[in-house]
Amino acid sequence: MTQVNVSLVSMDPAADPQHYVIEVRGNDGSKTAHQVTLRKDLYIRLTGGLKSPEELIRGSFQFLLEKEPKENILPTFDLSEIQRFFPEYEAVISSQLSK
């Protein structure tokens, strides 16, 4: 199973947006690195504040990995950009995180 590690980079917990580094490691040991920004309004809209930002990002990467290989995921992006490429993203991730 693919492993997704999420690390907060921002030093100020009140900063908006927050910046994260994500490492995706495949079953074969290969890995990719990504930098993601997450705005508070998107975080609240998708989770209602009930899940951690790290859970949202991890779930978002699992969503992406169901659609494409880790090597095809952009190296740097804002989490809101996923919706542009996959219109079902927000509905799917909100549903998954509400469980």
What would the keywords be for this entry?
single chain; 99 residues; alpha+beta; 4 helices; 36% helix; globular
Largest sheet: 4 strands, mixed
Mean pLDDT: 94
Largest beta sheet: what is the strand line-up? 1-2-3-4
Would you count the extended β strands for me?
Answer: 4
Cα distance spanning the termini:
21 Å
The total tally of domains equals: 1
Shape: globular
Radius of gyration: 13 Å
Helix content: 25-40%
Secondary-structure content class = alpha+beta
Strand content: 25-35%
Q: What ranges have pLDDT less than 50 throughout 5 or more consecutive residues?
A: none
| Total number of helices | 4
H/E topology pattern? EEEHHEHH
SSE layout:
Layout: E1 3-8, E2 18-25, E3 31-38, H1 40-47, H2 53-67, E4 76-78, H3 82-85, H4 89-97
Parallel strand pairs: 3-4
Antiparallel strand pairs: 1-2, 2-3
Short overview:
This protein has 99 residues and is of the alpha+beta class. Helix content is 36%, strand content 25%.
Could you explain the architecture of this structure?
The structure is a single chain. This protein is α+β, with helices and mostly antiparallel strands. It has one domain. It has four helices and four strands. The chain has helices at 40-47, 53-67, 82-85, 89-97, and strands at residues 3-8, 18-25, 31-38, 76-78. A four-stranded mixed β-sheet has the order 1-2-3-4. Helix 2 crosses helix 4 (89-97). The protein starts with a strand and ends with a helix. The mean pLDDT is 94.
